[in-house]
Amino acid sequence: MNSFTSRLNSLFAFTLSVMAALTFGCFLSTVLNDHLRPVQLSVGKVSVKNVPDYSADRERSDLGFITFDLFTDLSPLYNWNVKMLFLYLTAEYKTKDHELNQVVLWDKIVKRGENTILDFRKTNTKYYFWDYGNGLKGNENVTLTLRWNVIPNAGTLPNVRGVGSEVIRFPDQYTAGRF
Amino acid sequence: PKLHKVHLQQWDQHNLTGIIMDYILPYVPESIKSIPTHMDFDGQKRAERYFQIIILAFAVAGFGCGYVTQFFSHTLYILFAGVIISSLLTLFPWSTYRKMPLAWQPARSSDNKSSALASSSGNQTQSKGKKKKLKD
């Protein structure tokens, strides 16, 4: 502490330690949140085709097509420790080849400050609903759920499933032609 | 000759600041050169205590305000305001930090220089190791 620069150095180092403590305090203030919200999901058109997947091994695989409705209000999830939410719509189902299949059909990033009320009607999926094999035809129990990944300012990044889901029943026949 | 020797040393040590000061210092007016740049030891202790307290106070206030408004950026802005205020108050050698100077012994003639060093009082925490041994 003998010169301007040494005092500046100790003040700066002290400030950094204080900022680290404040950030930890911000994390502690939100560590007990459960991040749950109700979600309303429904599907419209449901069909399945059996086409070769040219990006995989050229065998014929099941390709599902759905349109969905989504309504939810995510504003209570946002606090001073949330930078953004990464939302993803997942279809989960069981086939005779694989016990658990999960396919992400649609995703969205909602940053803090953006519109948090989601109201999608008759929306097409963003990504193809490919199955590994032929497990979608006649599948009675394909569960559609909306999940989100909470991206904080400080702390852990939990994956949370929204409360509410929709069951899709795929038809027994493949659909021929275009959609 | 002394100036030349110092000049050579600074070139050897790549001391750019020293070289610049050699060329600028003769032109700086005396009123500026006589501005004190040191603090007493007691002043240094008080300055460090003051900036720690000010920054902590602004940090706590900022945390409260940030929690109420739910914006962590508000917490950091308030903290930075506290850092600027405490920097202005404690980094510069204001005269309040020079109010307890060391009580040096009066200067003696050069024959008794070593005994004068041994008997000087005050907190000898500076770099002169030889002085420490003599004092104890």
From TrEMBL, chain A:
A single Gene Ontology CC term: signal peptidase complex
Location of the protein in the cell: Endoplasmic reticulum membrane
Organism: Elysia crispata
UniProt xrefs under PANTHER family: MICROSOMAL SIGNAL PEPTIDASE 23 KD SUBUNIT SPC22/23, SIGNAL PEPTIDASE COMPLEX SUBUNIT 3
Functional description taken from the UniProt entry: Essential component of the signal peptidase complex (SPC) which catalyzes the cleavage of N-terminal signal sequences from nascent proteins as they are translocated into the lumen of the endoplasmic reticulum. Essential for the SPC catalytic activity, possibly by stabilizing and positioning the active center of the complex close to the lumenal surface.
Record's keyword annotation contains Membrane: yes
Family, per entry: Belongs to the SPCS3 family.
Biological processes, Gene Ontology terms: protein targeting to ER; signal peptide processing
Pfam families xrefs: SPC22
Topology with respect to the bilayer: Single-pass type II membrane protein
Domain of life, per lineage: Eukaryota
Alphabetical list of InterPro entries matching this protein: SPC3
Keywords: Endoplasmic reticulum, Membrane, Signal-anchor, Transmembrane, Transmembrane helix
Name listed for the protein in its UniProt record: Signal peptidase complex subunit 3
From TrEMBL, chain B:
Superkingdom of source: Eukaryota
This protein's record includes keyword Membrane: yes
GO biological process, one term: protein targeting to ER
An example Gene Ontology CC term for this record: signal peptidase complex
Listed Low complexity bias regions: 112-121
Subcellular location: Endoplasmic reticulum membrane
TM regions (residue ranges): 50-69, 75-94
Start and end residues of each stretch annotated as Disordered: 107-136
Protein's membrane topology: Multi-pass membrane protein
The entry's keywords: Endoplasmic reticulum, Membrane, Transmembrane, Transmembrane helix
Family according to the record: Belongs to the SPCS1 family.
Role of this protein: Component of the signal peptidase complex (SPC) which catalyzes the cleavage of N-terminal signal sequences from nascent proteins as they are translocated into the lumen of the endoplasmic reticulum. Dispensable for SPC enzymatic activity.
Name of the protein described by the UniProt record: Signal peptidase complex subunit 1
Native source organism of the sequence: Elysia crispata
